[in-house]
Structure to design on (476 residues):
């Protein structure tokens, strides 16, 4: 399982340190609470990437903005190899949208149990779900059948400031309330019931998730009025989300060149954002699913339960061509100046299709990725090396899709750090050159024997300058 922590706040500069600490604590809580190897849960903390625009903030929990943000976080996470995107924000503890799978939000002051709490919700409700306390005799290995101390984590319980304890399975005395400083989800005296615990393990740490066939990411939005749209599709290798023949109130349908159905994948749509489904609803449901595909797929349809086609994407005959032009590998980029470095590429398509680009940077040679651009129509995207930590295993990846057919290229490693460029220039003997050096590093300059004719009358009389050569160290 791989978790991505982007920041959805327009200006997160004042909470960056809190953001880093909380993200690590949440992941470590899951690693320490479940009987899994630490390598089974990877994560990437990327405070350098805020989501877009001041308007698209997640401040209003019950709004379409909330749903849109989670939909976009989920799509970016899936494109770049993450199972879940965890959107960070300032207020609201944690939550998810029933209509948007693969993404949740937590605030920067939430309890470390919040990620585990939201991961369970993403699996969907079950009849056996129980959010009340349980006696110690049905505890788990993490409890060792012992009562947990007062206010210790029961991560599937939830409450807010001043909520009566009766709502969290406590005393029947409605006058007792939660102390104001325990405003977050996830505090109680016991843990989680057995079926929910086992489902959380099997749902996210299933060994079958290591199987990565060729899939297509199908994403878009369905509106309450019956209309819908499909975003550009991307073909890659990943674990499938939907099995052929699965049921639902909407379907992703793959067809061959004759219009015959190859596979149907069912899923359910929800317009509930968060909390009470009677009131907290929007008009838009975002979705994204990996479904297995083959080279026989020639079109993708989104249909409702009656078979009505809501949206469609055709598969053109030719895949795009793609060539990365910068960086190519071996470059040294400086963190000492606040300036933009441009990633550039060349792409074309014989069918004349609109090309959509997806760009990410990795600081660990491609193990994890930081998305920089999504659905970009163009051939360059900028980033500021100053915002990144020093390292010599940076690579960039560019994916280009024509709406279905996809090409991918990855650069060779390059370095980012406190580099300075040293230039030696002279008008005598063509002595010039340049090189990149770390701040404080010694640079050796070597000049060989050179001779240059003098200017003016002395030059006409045969006079010349002669430099016998020199070598020595310079310190920045």
């Amino acid at each position: 399982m791989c978790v991505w922590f982007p920041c959805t706040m327009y200006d997160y500069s004042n909470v960056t340190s809190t953001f880093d600490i909380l993200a690590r604590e949440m992941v470590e809580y899951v690693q320490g609470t479940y009987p899994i190897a630490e390598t089974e849960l990877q994560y990437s903390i990327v405070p350098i990437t805020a989501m877009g625009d001041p308007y698209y903030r997640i401040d209003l929990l019950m709004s379409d903005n909330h749903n849109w943000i989670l939909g976009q976080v989920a799509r970016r996470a899936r494109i770049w190899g993450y199972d879940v995107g965890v959107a960070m924000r300032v207020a609201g503890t944690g939550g998810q949208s029933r209509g948007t799978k693969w993404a949740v939000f937590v605030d920067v002051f939430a309890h470390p149990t919040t990620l585990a709490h939201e991961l369970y919700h993403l699996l969907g409700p079950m009849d056996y779900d129980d959010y009340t306390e349980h006696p110690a005799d049905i505890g788990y290995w993490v409890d060792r059948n012992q009562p947990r101390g007062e206010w210790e984590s029961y991560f599937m319980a939830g409450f807010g400031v001043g909520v009566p304890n009766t709502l969290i399975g406590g005393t029947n005395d409605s006058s007792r309330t939660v102390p104001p400083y325990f405003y977050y989800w996830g505090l109680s005296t016991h843990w989680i019931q057995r079926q929910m615990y086992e489902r959380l393990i099997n749902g996210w740490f299933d060994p079958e998730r290591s199987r990565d066939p060729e899939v297509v990411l199908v994403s878009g939005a369905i509106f309450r009025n019956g209309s819908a749209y499909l975003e550009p599709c991307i073909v890659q290798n990943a674990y499938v989300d939907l099995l052929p023949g699965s049921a639902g109130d909407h379907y992703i349908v793959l067809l061959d060149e004759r219009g015959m159905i190859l596979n149907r994948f069912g899923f359910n749509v929800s317009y509930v954002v968060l909390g009470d489904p009677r009131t907290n609803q929007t008009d838009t449901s975002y979705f994204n699913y990996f479904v297995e595909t083959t080279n026989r797929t020639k079109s993708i349809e989104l249909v409702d339960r009656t078979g009505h086609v809501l949206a469609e994407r055709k598969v053109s005959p030719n895949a795009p061509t793609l060539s990365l032009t910068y960086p190519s590998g071996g470059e040294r980029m400086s963190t000492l100046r606040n300036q933009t470095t441009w990633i550039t590429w060349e792409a074309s398509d014989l069918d004349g299709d609109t090309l959509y680009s997806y760009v990410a940077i990795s600081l660990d040679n491609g193990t994890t990725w930081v998305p920089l651009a999504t659905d970009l129509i163009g051939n360059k995207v900028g980033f500021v090396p100053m915002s990144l930590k020093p390292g010599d295993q940076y690579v960039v990846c560019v994916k280009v899709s024509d709406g279905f057919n996809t090409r991918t290229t990855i650069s060779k490693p390059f370095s980012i750090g406190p580099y300075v460029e040293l230039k030696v220039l002279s008008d005598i003997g063509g002595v010039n050159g340049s090189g990149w050096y770390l701040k404080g590093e010694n640079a050796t300059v070597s000049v060989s024997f050179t001779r240059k004719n003098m200017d003016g009358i002395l030059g006409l009389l045969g006079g010349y300058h002669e430099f016998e050569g020199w070598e020595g160290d310079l310190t920045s």
